[in-house]
Amino acid sequence: MGILSVSEALAKTFASLPPTQLSTVPLVDAVHHILAERIQADRDLPPFDKSAVDGYAIAPVESTKILPFTFKVKGLSKAGSRWPGTLKSGEACQIMTGAPVPPGAERIIMVEDTTRVGDSVRIATLGEPQQHIQPRGREVQQGSVLLSPGTWIRSSEVGVLATVGKSYVQVFRKPTIGVLATGDELVEPDIVPGADQIRNSNGYALTAQIRSSYFEVTFLGVARDTKADTLKKIEMGLQKEVLILSGGVSKGEFDYVKDALLEKGALFEFDQIAIKPGKPLVFGKVQNTYIFGLPGNPGSSFTTCELFVLPFLKGWSGFPVYRPRLLQGILNFEIKAKGNRTHYLPVLIELKKDVWTLSKLPYAGSADVLALALANGFLVVEPDHSYRQGELAPFLFFSENAPFPEPLQK
Questions:
Q1: Which helix (H) or strand (E) holds 158?
Q2: How many whole angstroms separate alpha carbon 130 and alpha carbon 277?
Q3: Read out DSSP for 358-378?
Q4: What is the band of 256 on the pLDDT scale with cuts at 50, 70, 90?
């Protein structure tokens, strides 16, 4: 099948994406989806002339009068319950923040600048006409487009949707996802490992990595290193639309994943990528389920999930931008990549004087889980390329460490 470059593998992955599908979800469930409809204002905002302060709305005053002025208080206007009258000369209406301004009002005087005496109010300072009155439609006019298809729905967008009466929202549908770890050596985190065992970090880390990008995912457990158990667990996974397997995709005697998938009718697009770490990576389709077979080492599993799985899931879910985004930063160390594979090295990325800087971390290879915990991104070094200290180099933030959500809007 041959070994592919990262760009070649991504091209095959994205070419395999199914057409996006729409789903209508309750407003409370719309957060962290991609909006699939245009949202317009169904009314002016504010929908009436609104008070910006607590105080008194007053009728126009003759400019020849001398302060202080005294007005007859005719009523109270508060949020949700307006005073129904119209102000005439010499009259005022007590008003609360957010309340409708009564007809006939010329300005609003803050309560701090007034003195209430019975059913009258004395005003010490007049201010300017229209002060503290927010006119109808100042924020938004009816029919204005507020949100466009392709918008990443955050809590603030949910507020906009609620404001215009969208109790149900049309979004791009996310896939159902399963994660399956493999290996006889794996035990659960609460088990003391035997001499030849390790705790199952990959299954939980992969599940968390996918959830951190706001996808629902089911952890399906561990398939043991027998063909029968691997087949059984894969059959469970084929109930999902995307199945991510960790381990068992190399060429070892007890790596049964590829054989089990082939027995189920798998068609593979590729099975090796020219990257370090993460060379043995399987992508294809079994029946109606897309399959990613990731390497078993934690660093390799994490890297290939970042580069291939998460972009695929985002493309499925309607993200206008879903390809991994390379940025540029200053290296504070030297590096030379050897061999014919693109190297993804965990680094610490910091913003110093408006420039991204990349710092080297202790790194013992693809099994080093601590290096990933200390890092927040990858330095990307192409084959046989070198960088000197102080040079600009490409880097990629880990998805959950990116300093900005992407995309905010198409």
A1: helix 155-163
A2: 66
A3: EEE-----TT-HHHHHH-SEE
A4: confident
